[in-house]
């Protein structure tokens, strides 16, 4: 598939593995942060641990910025707490998840949740990524006025001939 992205931002994703306090699961997984750039570490390298929590580098992804989505990026930045959405798919083997995508588009982030078994989490957007997206929006955003469609005026359907005859 050919991408129409004008800018591609390489990012790394950090996930947390936490001991579960549940009879149905031993551990819980969730993405906790994204950082700009690509580290030298290989995917699923442990970054730190304590008794309850282990942080792991889950791998590299690319945030693609499209000129048609600038309104969504702008709204995300203006929200006060800009976020990135991380989408991971269970593998049923080791490592337990495959990193699928990271996006700055809230609508795409919401669409990630349609695949019911995927792990989708919003994480804080780092300031260096927010700066890149802000410059992208400034360069490519075109305000499109909202145009309310007008209903077609249709002629009312003809009366039933039997009803017409009884009216006369």
Order of helices and strands, N to C? Answer: EEEEHEEHEHH
Anisotropy-based shape: extended
Report the portion of residues in β strands. 35-45%
Query: Mean pLDDT, nearest integer?
Result: 89
Helix amount: 10-25%
Intertermini distance: 67 Å
The computed structural class is alpha+beta
Looking across the biggest beta sheet, what order are the strands in? 2-1-4-3
Question: What is Rg?
Answer: 24 Å
Helical stretch tally = 4
Let me know the largest β-sheet. Answer: 4 strands, antiparallel
Indicate the low-confidence ranges by residue numbers.
none
What is the tally of beta strands? 7
Short summary:
The chain is of the alpha+beta class and 168 residues long. 22% of the residues lie in helices and 37% in strands.
What does this molecule look like?
- With about 170 residues, this protein is of the alpha+beta class.
- The chain has 4 helices and 7 strands.
- Strand 1 and strand 2 form a beta hairpin.
- Helix 1 crosses helix 3.
- The longest helix has 14 residues.
- The model has no long low-confidence stretch (mean pLDDT about 90).
């Amino acid at each position: 598939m050919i991408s129409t992205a004008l800018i591609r931002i390489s990012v790394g994703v950090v996930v947390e593995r936490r001991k579960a306090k549940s009879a149905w699961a031993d551990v819980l997984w969730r993405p906790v942060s994204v950082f700009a750039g690509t580290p030298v570490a290989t995917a699923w390298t442990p970054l730190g641990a304590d008794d309850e929590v282990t942080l792991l580098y889950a791998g590299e992804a690319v945030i693609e910025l499209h000129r048609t989505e600038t309104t969504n990026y702008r709204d995300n930045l203006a929200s006060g707490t800009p976020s990135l959405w991380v989408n991971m798919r269970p593998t049923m083997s080791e490592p337990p998840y495959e990193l699928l995508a990271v996006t700055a588009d809230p609508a795409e982030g919401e669409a990630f949740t349609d695949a019911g078994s995927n792990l989708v989490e919003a994480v804080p957007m780092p300031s260096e990524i927010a700066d890149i997206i802000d410059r992208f929006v400034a360069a490519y955003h075109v305000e499109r006025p909202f145009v309310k469609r007008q209903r077609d005026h249709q002629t009312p359907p003809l009366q039933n001939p039997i009803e017409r005859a009884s009216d006369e």
